[in-house]
Amino acid sequence: INAEYGEVSTQSTGGEAQKIDRMMEEFAVVYCQANSTVYSKSDTCYVLAFSIIMLNTSLHNPCVKEKLTADQFVKMNNGINDGGDLPAQLLINAYHSIKTTPFEIPEEDPMDFTITFYNPDKRGYLVKEGGKRKTWKKRYFVLTDNCLYYFVRESDTEPKGIVPLENLIVTECKDRKFTFEIRSEEKFIKAAKTDSGGKMVSGNHEHYRIQANNQEEMTSWMDAIQKSISKDPFYAQMQQRKKNAMSKQ
Fold first, then answer.
1. What are phi and psi of 214, to 5 degrees?
2. Can you point out the beta strands (E) in the chain?
3. What is the distance between the alpha carbons of residues 50 and 23, in angstroms, rounded to a whole number?
C-alpha cells in the first residue's frame, strides 16, 4: 500500500481509465521485480492496485453514494492471485488504510473535471426536462466512467448535475418524439446537482427525460447509456480487470 501511495502521490491519475490502467500495470511490474516473493505474478499486483484505486474513489468521492464495505472489497478481489485468493486480512488492512488515509493527488483541483472528461464514451447537446419545473432546456451531456454528467454550456468546467448509472433503466418515451427516459428501480434516482448558490446537493428526480435531435441520435445515446449502466459498477470493473489479466496467461 505504501508503494502505491508513493506512485499515486507523484502522478495525476485524473479520470481517464486508460491512463490509470497503464500506470497501474507499470507499477505492478516494477513492484514485483523489487519484491519477487510477495505475489505469484505481476498480474495479481496489477489487479489489486487497480482495485485499490477504485476503493479510494468509492470511499472518498462524494458523488459515490453506496460506499464499498470491507467485506465487499474482499469478495471483489476473490481469485486474483493466479486463481487463488489473497489473505483476507491483507485486504482488510488495505481497506482500512485507504479509508483512513486517502490518496493525495498533487496539483489537481478536486472540482476540476477537465481531465475526467478528456476521453468520454459519448458527449453532445441534448434537451432535458426539469425536475420540479417541467420546462425543457438545452444541456451539454458527457457520458464517462459509469456516470452521466450535464452542463449548461460545453465550455463549463463543472457539471450542473451528475447521474451515477447504478441500478437504472433507460427506455424510449412514447409521448414525445426522439425522447428517452432514465429511471430507477427504486423511487428516486441517486444523483447530485448544483443549486443556485453553486453548492452540490442531492437530486430529487424520479426520472430524467431527455430529447435528442432525431431517431438515430436518440438510439445512439440510449445504447451508450445502457452499456454504462451497471448493477455494481465497481464489481463489474474488477471482473473486467481479472478477465484482462487472465487473458495474458
1. -160, 175
2. 122-129, 136-144, 147-151, 161-164, 168-172, 179-184, 192-194, 200-202, 207-211
3. 9
Q: Which DSSP state fits 84?
A: B
Using a cut of 0.90, tell me whether the model's pTM lies above it: no
- Residues 147 and 170: their CA atoms lie apart, in Å, by 14
For 219, counting Cβ atoms within 10 Å of its Cβ (0-12 exposed, 13-18 middle, 19+ buried), the class is middle
Residue 186: how many CB atoms within 10 A of its CB? 10
pLDDT digits (tens, 9 = 90+) for 173-183: 999 999 999 99
Rg (CA), the chain: 20
β-strand 200-202 against 192-194: which pairing, if any?
antiparallel
